[in-house]
Amino acid sequence: MEDGQEARPPNQGLKIVVCIKQVPKGEQLEIDPVKKTLRREGVESEMNPADKNAVEMALGFKDEHGGEVIALSMGSRSFERSLRMAIGMGADRAVLLSDRALAGSDTTPTSYALAGTISLLGKIDLILCGEETSDSSTGHVGPGIAGHLEIPQITYVTEAKVENDKIIAKRQVEFGFETWETTFPALLTVKFGCNRPREPTLSRKIKAKRGNVIQTWSAKDAGLDESKLGLNGSPTIVSTIDTVELPSRKGELFSGNLGKNVSDLISRLVRDGFIRG
Amino acid sequence: METGEYKGVMVFLEHRKGKLRNASIQLIGEGRRLADILKQELSGALLGKDVENLTGEAIQFGCDKVHYIEHDLLENYAPRPYAKALAELVQKRRPDALLFGATMNGREVAGRLHAYTHTGLAADCTAFDITEDGYLEMIRPAFGGKSLAHIICKKTKPQMASARPNVFPAPDKDPARKGEILKETVQLTQEDVDTRCLEVVEHEDEANMLSKSEIVVSGGYGLKKKENFVLLEELAELLHGVVGASRKTVDIGWFPRERQIGQTGKTVRPRLYFAIGISGAIQHLAGMERSEKIVAINADPTASIFEVADYGIVGNLFDVIPEMIRQLKAMKSSQSSS
Fold first, then answer.
1. Residue B90 in contact with residue B70, Cβ under 8 Å?
2. Domain range for residue A266?
3. A243 assigned to some structural domain
4. What kind and span of H or E run contains A51?
């Protein structure tokens, strides 16, 4: 860095947006056999697991550099629960983009809507998202937001730090780890399980219950073009949903005594050419 | 939008260390199949600095055409310049469908691209088909793998999707195959290269052995504690296989995440798969059901893993595995003495 240029961020801290989705709890994913859709009634929901890691990473940045953490979600009013959780963990405030016009959005309008909302939150330094959601598992919304905002993206991040005016992030890929460098503002998607999300504290939970901590915005508040939202604005449709049929295999079950079971199995594996007999 | 003029199937060709990545080679095979159903061309999109030498191989694997873009700013992969270059190529060449390998880079570049092009994108597909009216049917596990969603994109072109690695078989190379090689140009500026990879640390063994191994020996929660994985390691060594793990054992820290097999982990298709102490949750099955032969060992005769197994032993794994190790060792010693 050249002399005289102000290093970032010594004083003013980092303004960080964390994108959060509320998802059905993992073990409670059930398909309605008649409607062929996800059963939502009576199903407990929670903050998407990877998003918790993103909140923790944001709070870690705030612990070290100061600043503000804003939790952002898009969905029904019930999503406030996950935003209160984020505030309980340490986020300063939250914005919920909630509008009937958004219902049925695939990742294309979702990326557009979140990017539009973020652009109205002032000068943001960092946007953090979970690597993917546990209910849709696309991982497309983070890069989509970065694309709309034309800011740098680093995905599948396991660790990140700020060095002067740069962000250094470790990224997990199929064959190992990569270290990437970029500048502010940037979007990172955070790998599930990369850190241990802190528990919400009692005093913060109380703060989360007070008014004004969560703002609810309509599509109009966020300046969004309604024709680009919801089912109408989504290029993709789900035409059918099948329940998974297990591949039919003609299985042989060995149920005699231990030694014979094992020798029967080994003889099959020899016959099939897996073991040299 | 005028969509009638979009034609052909295009696959994004990733490369690493001067070679096409396996996920891309598999994609050429599946793209070829879809293009044949549509009676259209299969083209490849190849981006980099020095990539012309890879075009011939892409043709030999099954492409009719390869569009290659060589640019100094594309020397190293980075999401923004690659997504921008693809957006420009797509606008110029107008493929009807554009497929990516669902690798980390494939998914992130496709995710960025779909914001530029405002098109539909389906992630991590495990099957494709063509509908009667000629649309691409993108089939992917949904709701944590408990069902398969068939996704169609009629409103925008190209229809885009990523395909899960190791689900589609790699095609054979045909050295006699001929095709068209087209050099393309794109407009990029230095500002587009807004991220930079400083270092790569490979752990080829950990990550890739699992996908490459012909025999995988996987353990689940039935192993009761971390230390018991040594049993699996011993068995795997005798069989010349590698050890995999279920999500639960990874979540509680018994095994590193690179070893996880299933919906949120790796998909493997070895010749022989052992599921030991694994009940067979659908999420796990999604990662191994294409194995050539499956062996299940479980104390619970009603465990759903037995429904997909070719061979099963109902029994306590702490009896069965040591007995297997004993018999395999006995075989080995009799072989070496004879």
1. no
2. 248-277
3. no
4. helix A49-65
Instruction: Mark whether A181 and A268 lie in a shared domain.
Output: no
Rounded to the nearest angstrom, the minimum Cα separation between A259 and chain B is 7
Give CA–CA dist A83/A89, Å, rounded.
Answer: 10
User: Cβ separation of A237 and B151 shorter than 8 Å?
Assistant: yes
Q: Could you give the domains of chain B?
A: 9-192 (3.40.50.620), 204-337 (3.40.50.1220)
Residues 6+ away with beta carbon under 8 Å from B4: none
Q: Which of B192, B195, B213, B284 to mutate to test the interface with A (most CBs of A within 10 A)?
A: B195
In a domain, A272, yes or no: yes
- A126 and A64 in one domain? yes
A135 chain-B contacts, CB cut-off 8 A: 143-144
| Cβ contact A237–B257 (<8 Å) | no
pLDDT, tens digit, 9 for 90 and up, residues B58-67: 999 999 999 9
Q: In this structure, are A91 and A145 located in the same domain?
A: yes
Ranges A18-32, A245-259, B244-258, most confident: B244-258
Residue A29 is assigned to a structural domain of this protein: yes
The fraction of chain B above a pLDDT of 70, given in percent, is: 95
Is it the case that residue B286 has pLDDT exceeding 60? yes
Which residues, at least 6 apart from B36, have a Cβ–Cβ distance to it below 8 Å? none
Whether B293 and A138 lie within 8 Å, measured CB to CB: no
The conformational region for residue B307 under phi > 0 = left, psi -120 to 50 = alpha, else beta, is alpha
pLDDT in tens, A95-154: 999 999 999 999 999 999 999 999 999 999 999 999 999 888 899 999 999 999 999 999
pLDDT of residue A277: 66
Best B19, B24, B96, B112 member to test A by mutation, with max A CBs in 10 Å, is B112
Q: For chain A, how many structural domains are there in total?
A: 2
Q: What is the pLDDT of residue B119?
A: 95
Q: Are A16 and A190 in contact (CB under 8 A)?
A: no
Rounded distance, CA B126 to CA B263, Å?
11
Q: State ipTM.
A: 0.86
CB contact under 8 A, B215 and A29: no
State whether B202 and A176 contact (CB < 8 Å). Answer: yes
